[in-house]
Write a structure and sequence with these properties.
The chain starts with 6 loop residues before the first helix and ends in a 6-residue tail after the last helix. With 102 residues, it is α+β, with helices and mostly antiparallel strands. Helix content is 34%, strand content 16%.
Length: 102
């Protein structure tokens, strides 16, 4: 479940992903496997070839893409999260979610 985002933000992400574009969406998150992290950035794209290429271009292993139709995505957590948010002009999420800038 996503916390800290509006329905409009989620809908916009879904629209971009559904059209085959790359979209990033950060939200608060808890997973007992990663208790040190409180946020996740979902990098989504319904074009799996494009999402795979994006992962490889950014040094991420595409084996970890969640192929959940209709919104396949890669979960960014940890230090790479702020780095890639900054790189792809979603840096307003860095202070909003208390991420450490790179």
């Amino acid at each position: 479940m996503a916390f800290g985002i509006s329905k409009q933000e989620l809908q916009q992400w879904k629209e971009i992903v559904g059209r085959g574009g790359i979209a990033l969406l950060t939200h608060y998150w808890f997973d007992p496997r990663f208790p040190q992290y409180t946020t996740v950035t979902k990098v989504g794209c319904s074009d799996l070839n494009l999402l795979t290429r994006w992962c490889k271009e950014n040094g991420l292993d595409p084996r970890y893409i969640h192929n959940r139709q209709p919104y396949p995505h890669f979960d960014l957590i940890g230090p790479r999260q702020a780095e890639l948010l900054q790189k792809y002009a979603n840096d307003q999420h860095i202070p909003r979610f208390g991420l450490t800038e790179v």
